[in-house]
Structure formats: C-alpha cells, structure tokens
What we know:
The chain has a single domain (2-341), classed as Histone deacetylase domain (Arginase, Chain A). It has 10 helices and 10 strands. It has helices at residues 30-43, 59-62, 65-80, 106-112, 125-144, 174-184, 201-207, 256-273, 301-310, 326-341, and strands spanning 2-4, 16-19, 22-25, 48-49, 149-152, 190-194, 213-220, 245-250, 277-282, 316-320. InterPro entries: HDACs (IPR000286), His_deacetylse_dom (IPR023801), His_deacetylse_dom_sf (IPR037138), Ureohydrolase_dom_sf (IPR023696). Residues 28-330 form the Histone deacetylase domain.
Amino acid sequence: MKTVFSPRHAGHSGNVELDTNEIVPAYEKPSRAEFIRARIEAVGLGPIVEPQAHGLETARKVHDPAYLEFLESVYPEWLAAGRSGTAMPYVWPTRALRADVVPTSIEGKIGFYAFDAGATFVAGTWDAVRSSHDSALSAASLVESGEPAAFALCRPPGHHAGSNFAGGYCFINNAAVAAQWFLDQGAKRVSILDVDYHHGNGTQEIFYRRSDVQVVNLHADPLFEYPHFLGHADEGGEGAGEGFNHNLPMARGTDWSGWSKALERGFKLVSDYTPDVLIVSLGVDTFERDPISQFKLVSDDYPKIGREIARLRLPTLFVMEGGYAVEEIGINAVGVLTGFED
Ligand code: Q9C
Ligand code: ZN
C-alpha cells in the first residue's frame, strides 16, 4: 500500500507540554513520524509519496472557518504580543463562563479555541498541520481512485480536534476532513473506526448529529483516562445522528483478550452499517510500553488488528493518530498495515 507523508511535519517541534505537574518536552514529537517512515522502508510496505497541496474548503465543512483562521494566526499573534517559545492556553470558557464572545487578545483566543493545554503551537505548527491535512486528503484520493487501501502518515494527529477546538496534540481533524471529502465525492456512508488508546472526542463531536458518518471508538474508559469528559458508552448520537455513534470504553490494563472482543463488536457495527469507505484512526498508544497509556497490547497484536480490519473488505484509509513509544511505534503501526495486506 502507498503511504502519503510530508517532511513538513518536522516544523512542529521543540514544543513543551504540561504533564500533570511539570513542563516536559512534548511527547508528540517529530521522531514519531520518522520511526514510522523508516519502518515502512525497512519492510517494503510500498512507495512513500508527498501530498498534493489542498485548499481548506473541505476542512471548513467540519471545522468552524473562524477556528481555522485562528489556527493560522495564533503563533504570529503570540509573538506580536511579546511572548515567545511554546504557545499554550491557561484558561478555558468552561460551563458557567461565556463561550459566545470571542476574545480579541491572543491569551483569550487560545483558550477559547481549545479544551486542554495539549495542542501547543510553535513557529512551524501551522505549516505542519496543513501538510498533515494534505496527507489525509491525498491518501483519500488514492482510495477514491481505486487503491484498496492507503496510509496517511499524518503528524500532527487529529482525532481530539473538534469543530471549533484544538486539544490532545490535535489541530485539524484529518480523519473527519477525509470522511467529509469521501461524501463530497459521492460516498453515501463512511465509517470511522478509531482504535487509538484515547477516545476520539473531536471526531465524535463533529459527527454526533449526522447519520452519514458512523463513528466507532475503542478506547480507555474516560472515568480514569484522558480526555476524561467524553467517551462513555451511553453516548449514542443525537437527532439524525442517533444510533450512529458507538463508544466501547475499556478498563485500565486491558490486553489483547479484552481489546480483541471490543474490536469484534466494532467489526459487527461497521459491517452492519454497510459503509462505502472505512477510515481507521490508527493510534498505537494501546501498546504495553506506551509512556502515557495503560493498555497491554504487544507488538504481535498489531498485525492481528490489520487482518481483522481487512476482513471487512472495504476500501480503507488509515490515518495516523497517537502512539508515543517511539522505538516501537514503527513496528506497531506498520504491523497493522502489513497485517491488513496479508
Ligand atoms: N502529559 C493522541 O493520542 N494527555 N493524543 C497526556 C501526559 C494528553 C493524546 C498526558 C494525551 C493526548 C492523539
Ligand atoms: Zn491517543
């Protein structure tokens, strides 16, 4: 299978994050993508091509256009305000505060358009975000033009980004933009199967009231894990979207025996929906040695995930999401893809 990958991801680097009680180098760092790229070459998965440039017109259908303009302008405004280093928010319009008036200051705006401190900005962030978005759409084009599958090696990831908020290392929701693009090309139904360790709260929010995109999430129970405030089993969609969102939260310490049962349920949900296209939000932070996660999958489990997904016999777009054990991220992510091709 072909991989779409842009070296421009590397501009999103040198940023720090707030890790519970201290500021640390961001876990979501350039070497993640480079380890995956190296593994693709080592196993000969297929050609690696650079994305075509795409406009933001599809992105504007799943994100608030003002949010996208914010993403582009935030770092220059941060600098213009006399700040430097990593731009991150420290105040958010939660519950009783006003979420209907956009502040004019950069300190206000950066919190207004985020749900956590985890999507941080440096000088090269917007260009990297654009390139990641372009990779998703270029890989989607490969599937649309008849390839059975393609891999969008996206960095930064996307599934925590919602219609008008960044968070969890995510800015543009690459999988959501690709889903919208497939619909615009004539697909009637698209399924997004999110196997990242964390609940894809952004993807859920974007499609929560829609029936043309089914969202199936396999993840750590938000009662104990990030993003903490979405991803419970009773979130089934609303209005026209009722019945098209499915959450399969799992306990701390879940290993293949538990995780594969959830995958089996996810398989059945996707299969029953009879989508025209499948998008896999591919996170490999379910790995036993992931530094920020608490599941227990081992490297031999990832090809099994790929083989199971292939049994759906659907045109499939893989979109890279999380995974922070950089030494093994390539083995595990590419393991899913080689398993799919077996
Ligand atoms: N500071 C994705 O996997 N919490 N995002 C990290 C350590 C945020 C994960 C806790 C995790 C976000 C795409
Ligand atoms: Zn994750």
